[in-house]
Write a structure and sequence with these properties.
Rossmann fold, four-stranded parallel beta sheet
Length: 345
């Protein structure tokens, strides 16, 4: 049961138990916990990262157990959609531990968990009856590095970096302190949630997870923590991760460096493929990497996935049609490029 009249000390107790790297990470973790208490609001998935021994799994369990109770725990990633539905149905928070690779199918399933989806299959032992399963749950991930992150999942992630503690504690001591602090933590979180939900704040209109961005703005209005700025910076860092892991995105940005601002360049998808392929292979005649687009259609689909990431770097991609053919347009808008925020995570 939550403790009453905690005067906010429960939040401080939680932050002492977790090894968050900085104050910005701490305020994002608090914002996510508040978001989990609102079942109608989708929240991005916190991804606890850090070096070995930083307490990622332990920190993840603590965050989950604040919402789920002491029975909540981390799970292995599901292998298919059917196992995903079973995992989602097992509790409110779906927490996946020790991820080292995100296959495209798993990445798409995680997007569905965060923003919601529905599956329909035939009911067992019937010819015509169907079973409809709808799901949208808070998602939590832990891992050192998951490799390449797809752009659509990056917009739904909330990176929380942890650091190795200077003093090690035993599991028994750590969890005993957490159980003792849990009533105060929950009481403080509920008090803070009431204060945040009552705060007036403008809704940011430039972020995909607008509900969570609004929640961060409300948290800032209530406490002055700077959660919205921290959230923007975390998304900017994730855009860098997407670009660093995608050679096509790097090649597009390299081509766009020579574009005249405000002067659009139009070509068919096949012409763009030939141009970008030539630009990539022009450096020491290096071979094309695995996964490089092989047709104009594949290139067009890849650019659609990368469109928000490239727009954040000042490169606008659009599609259109003339009387003769379809085209892809690339533009650098006039004016200074988007500011590169200093990384805080």
């Amino acid at each position: 049961m939550p403790a009453a009249d905690t005067n906010g000390k429960g939040i401080d107790l939680l932050l002492r138990l977790c090894n968050f790297a900085n104050a910005q990470t701490e305020c994002l973790a608090v914002a996510w916990l508040i978001g989990c208490l609102g079942p109608s609001v989708p929240v991005p998935a916190p991804f606890l990262t850090g070096p070995q021994g930083a307490g990622k799994s332990t920190g993840g369990r603590m965050l989950v157990r604040i919402i789920e109770g002491m029975s909540g725990d981390l799970r292995r990633a599901p292998k298919d959609e059917e196992n995903l539905i079973a995992a989602v149905a097992a509790g409110w928070v779906t927490a996946l531990d020790n991820l080292s690779h995100l296959a495209p199918d798993l990445s798409d399933l995680m997007c569905c968990i965060v923003t919601g989806a529905e599956t329909i299959k035939r009911a067992l032992y019937t010819d015509g009856d169907v079973v409809r399963a709808r799901y949208r749950r808070p998602l939590l991930l832990t891992g050192i590095d998951v490799g390449v992150i797809r752009p659509d999942l990056a917009e739904r992630l909330l990176p929380l970096r942890l650091e190795r503690p200077a003093v090690r504690r035993t599991e028994a001591e750590l969890w005993r302190d957490f159980e003792e602090a849990l009533p105060a933590i929950l009481g403080s979180l509920l008090d803070l949630t009431v204060k945040v939900r009552a705060a007036e704040a403008d809704i940011p209109t430039d972020l995909r997870m607008a509900d969570f961005a609004h929640l961060c703005a409300q948290l800032d209005a209530a406490t002055g923590l700077g959660a919205l700025n921290a959230y923007r910076t975390s998304l900017d860092d994730l855009n860098d991760d997407v670009i660093e892991g995608d050679l096509l995105a790097q090649t597009v940005l390299k081509y766009a460096d020579d574009l005249t601002p405000g002067d659009p360049t139009r070509m068919t998808s096949t012409q763009w493929l030939h141009t970008l392929t030539g630009l990539y292979t022009s450096d020491d005649h290096r071979p094309l990497p695995k996964g490089w687009p092989t047709t104009g259609k594949v290139l067009s689909d890849r650019l659609k996935r990368l469109q928000p990431t490239l727009a954040a770097r000042g490169v606008l991609i659009d599609w259109g049609r003339t009387s003769e053919s379809r085209y892809i347009e690339m533009t650098r808008p006039p004016g200074p490029p988007p500011p590169q925020q200093e990384s805080i995570l």
